[in-house]
Specification:
By secondary structure, the protein is an alpha+beta fold. It has two domains: about 110 residues, Glutamine synthetase, N-terminal domain (Ubiquitin-like (UB roll)), CATH 3.10.20; about 325 residues, 2-Layer Sandwich (Creatine Kinase, Chain A, domain 2). It is about 30% helix and about 20% strand. The protein is built from twelve helices and 17 strands. Strands 8, 9, 10, 11, 12, 13, 14, 15, 16 and 17 form a ten-stranded mixed β-sheet that branches. The radius of gyration is 22 Å and the shape is globular. The protein starts with 17 loop residues before the first helix and ends with a helix.
Length: about 450
């Protein structure tokens, strides 16, 4: 029986408070904590820490529980320490940064006995936030939206991923199984384990389905606060890769993993004033003023921020006609050929931003969306007429902007954008433009298999 002086022991699942974690540490049930920092690609980076040491360090609010080399936030995709960033370099000695835990994010991992995970914020040795850290970038935009306009951003993420057989590297399904309920037994077992693991770690999926390309899967998550949505997504990605490996599968989050295959990370967003949705409509012919300004901001600003939601050269191969990925910055009502889709009903009416690819860092993609909405509200922008019909027929000479054709073009637009510099700061813009140029340079030095296969025996 629990006395009035005793707190009930929390369940060993889902989210934990710091006090709840300490109880399980004292019981010997939690022995390890993973303090993690999302890197520029949105992948979790960190170390294994004694749970008791973590609990002691975390009892000092605002203090780091661990340190990491700052190059974690200033590296290429292979984690090579490239000497082109202002954050850290050979000249500065590749100094450390601290990891300050966000104590609202402690959760149990279902597949690692006795292990908890906590998202952290990167800080300099003096305690100042690292400006280019993805979580900090998103937090700045969310805070600005609330302080300047009195609204909060809610987000639901929709992930597309392609699963391959780890041995043959062929898709795990042969045909278009979009909305099918008949799957190979191995895929059904994979789905079941993934759904259970996500629920266990307080990252429940709203729906799971096979998609339109062989081996392609869509996992959609429920609406919630924007930061929590992004944190949950990184846990999902971490778990999906582990579970797929156990089932002999290899997932890829490439935006265009094969010719004529496109995978997105669709960002569903709405604005709220307290408990009331600001986008609620009864008729699509009369959109709320705040929604119109938000749509206009997205159309006007997102063209300058493409490296934040399409970060790799491969990202731009996804933007092809009739791929269900947008090719122009258009908007429409329940129109999947547009970049911005008005969807939902009544109080559930919201915007679906279809521009980010599966390779996007969720924090950066949502930060870009938030910055664009903030700009639209601040400037009282009005959108053009909604696009009716085939969005792939949009003509560039009608004032409709096309999606950038390459990462190089997108990076140039980012670093020269006054709006991007105003929203994120020059140091952040330079950092992510530099990252884009690094990826372009890395591929320029390689001879791709496509060129070998096309030219080897023909010239």
């Amino acid at each position: 029986m629990t006395t009035h002086d005793e707190a009930p022991t929390p369940p060993l699942t889902g989210m934990l408070t710091l006090d709840g974690l300490k109880k399980w540490v004292d019981e010997g049930l939690i022995t390890t904590v993973l303090p993690v920092l999302p890197n520029m690609g949105g992948l979790l980076r960190g170390k294994r820490l004694s749970a008791r040491k973590f609990a002691e360090a975390a009892s000092q609010p605002g203090h780091p529980v661990a340190e990491a080399c700052a190059y974690v936030l200033a590296t290429d995709i292979d984690m090579n320490p490239v000497d082109v960033y202002d954050l850290t370099s050979w000249l500065s000695g590749f100094q450390d940064m601290g990891a300050v835990p966000d104590l609202d994010t402690i959760r149990i991992l279902p597949r690692s006995s006795g292990t908890a995970l906590v998202h952290c914020d990167a800080v300099h040795p003096g305690g100042q936030p690292v400006q280019v850290a993805p979580r900090h970038m998103l937090r700045r935009q969310l805070d600005a939206l609330t302080s300047e306009h009195g609204v909060q951003l809610r987000v639901g993420l929709e992930s597309e991923v392609v699963l391959y057989d780890a041995t043959s590297l062929r898709p795990v399904t042969e045909h278009n199984l979009d909305y099918s309920l008949q799957h190979p037994r191995g895929l059904t077992l994979f789905f079941t384990e993934l759904e259970r693991a996500l629920a266990f770690s307080a990252t429940p999926a709203e729906s799971v389905k096979t998609e339109g390309s062989p081996g392609q899967v869509e996992v959609a998550f429920p609406y919630g606060p924007a930061m929590r949505a992004c944190d949950d997504y990184t846990v999902y990605k971490h778990l999906l890769k582990e579970i797929a490996d156990d089932h002999g599968m290899r997932p890829t989050f490439m935006a265009a993993p094969q010719t004529e295959v496109a995978s997105g990370l669709h960002v569903h967003v709405s604005l709220w004033q307290g408990d009331e949705p600001a986008f609620a409509v009864t008729e699509f012919k009369e959109l709320p003023e705040v929604m119109r300004h938000a749509i206009a901001g997205l159309l006007f600003v997102l063209p300058d921020l493409a490296p934040l939601y399409a970060p790799n050269p491969n990202s731009y191969r996804r933007y092809q006609p009739y791929s269900f990925a947008p090719t122009h910055y258009t908007w429409g009502v329940d129109n999947r050929t547009c970049a911005i889709r008005v969807t939902g009903h009544g109080k559930g009416t919201h915007l679906e931003v279809r521009l980010p690819g599966a390779d996007a860092n969720p924090y950066l993609a949502v930060a870009a969306v938030c910055a664009a909405i903030n700009y639209g509200l601040a400037s009282s922008l009005e959108p053009p007429e909604p696009w009716a019909g085939d969005g792939y027929e949009a003509e560039d000479d009608k004032g409709v902007r096309p999606v950038p054709g390459s990462l190089t073009a997108a990076a140039r637009a980012l670093e020269s954008s006054g709006i991007a510099n105003e929203c994120f700061g020059g140091d952040v813009v330079t950092h992510y433009a530099t990252a884009a140029y690094q990826e372009v340079k890395a591929l320029e030095q390689l001879v791709p298999d496509t060129e070998i296969n096309r030219y080897r025996d023909r010239i």
